[in-house]
Amino acid sequence: MPELPEMENYKVQLSQHILDLPITSVSVNREKSINVEAEAFSSELLNRQVVFVERRGKHLLFHLDNGRRLLLHLMLGGLLYLGSSEDRPERTIQIEITFGPDLVLYFMGLRLGYLHILSAKEAEEVLAHLGPEPLGRRMNEERFISLLQNRRSSLKTALVNQDIIAGIGNCYADEIAFAAGLRPSAKLQNFDAADFLRLYHAMCEVLVKATEAGGYMEMPVIKGDTLTGGSNDICEVYDRGGETCSRCGDKIVKTEMGGRKVFYSPGCQHDR
């Protein structure tokens, strides 16, 4: 599932190409991916313009010139591609939105994901449960510690809880735990102030590096895109079960916790 770095990459790249262009056509191939009838959805979008693209946690918000919002959550398997019919990927496409004469934004793999048309108030209500942004201006050491220190939970369970902090999922929770030298299964109630501080700085470091590297999604956002997917090469533990840890030389373990895949290095990640 795309996480903060992947959605931030989508936000930045789409913002460079689609803003202020009129929406000239809309095609809906799967009505379950939207929240109104296909005809009404298309009617709402035709001749409108996207004036701003915002990321909130794992969501994208497309701000329209009439004040309405398109709220996107890709969920598991969702992908975006911006291009033409000639270079579009060979994937099942649920929604197509054309900007200008021939620039098409393809929404693919929305088996669980969705694209909903909402008022600004409705969008705000849908996202109201989300915790703060991990790299936001209002996040700092003190606030991070206050969010986690009184919880009786494992480290990974807390990091992927969108109601606590928005935008972190399976991949970066494991990478953050590795950077902090803590096991994903470590219990927050056993942490001291130094553990939380180390975890906070690990979170910032991992998410910034992954975002700068374009996230882990392998499919380009647009033709000629050489940024997307770069963080695959810098992941230390995620999806590297059985490989050698770059820090301690131990074998990286793949296991499960609460139905989620977990990757860690037993030689240099500890309970606290």
Summed up, what is this model?
InterPro entries: FPG_cat, FPG_N, H2TH_FPG, Ribosomal_uS13-like_H2TH, Znf_DNA_glyclase/AP_lyase, Znf_FPG/IleRS. Helix content is 26%, strand content 21%.
Describe the structure.
By secondary structure, the chain is α+β, with helices and mostly antiparallel strands. The chain folds into two domains: 4-127, Alpha-Beta Barrel (N-terminal domain of MutM-like DNA repair proteins); 141-264, Helicase, Ruva Protein, domain 3. Helices cover 26% and strands 21% of the residues. The chain is built from seven helices and ten strands. It has a four-stranded antiparallel β-sheet, covered by helices on one side. The chain has a four-stranded antiparallel β-sheet with strand order 2-3-4-8. Helix 1 packs parallel to helix 7 (193-212), helix 4 packs across helix 7 and helix 6 (170-180) crosses helix 7. The chain is globular.
